[in-house]
Amino acid sequence: MNERLKELRKYLNLSQKVFAEKLGITDSGLSNLESGKRNLTEQMIISICREFNVSEIWLRTGEGEMFTPNPATEL
After folding, report:
1. For an engineered disulfide with 2, which of 29, 36, 42, 73 has Cβ 3.0 to 4.6 Å away?
2. How far apart are CA 13 and CA 36, in angstroms?
3. Torsions phi, psi for 53 (to 5 deg)
4. Helix (H) and strand (E) counts for the chain?
């Protein structure tokens, strides 16, 4: 998952600092996640998917689309 986390950040064209701030962690914490020194927790996976509209299946397995389709808004 660490490779996909880095891929996501680069796709969004965000620095480690900005990406980490959006998740409420430090940039060094994000660096540890991207490098594989630390594993993603369940809570962090949920936060990433919610914050960036990322498919949890893609993040966990690499299968499917990177992003979840936006649900149609109801008026």
Report:
1. 36
2. 20
3. 55, 45
4. 5, 0
Query: Which stretches does DSSP call E strand in 1-75?
Result: none
The residue type at 74 = E
Question: What is the distance between the alpha carbons of residues 55 and 25, in angstroms, rounded to a whole number?
Answer: 21
C-alpha 6/C-alpha 75 separation (Å) is 36
Residues 65 and 55: beta-carbon distance below 8 Å: yes
pLDDT at res. 72? 59
Burial per residue of 7-42, b for 16 or more beta-carbon CB atoms within 10 angstroms, e otherwise: ebbeeeeeebeebbeebeeeeebbeebbeeeeebee
Residue range 28-48: average pLDDT?
Answer: 96
pLDDT band, residue 74 (cuts 50/70/90): low
Res. 75: pLDDT tops 80: no
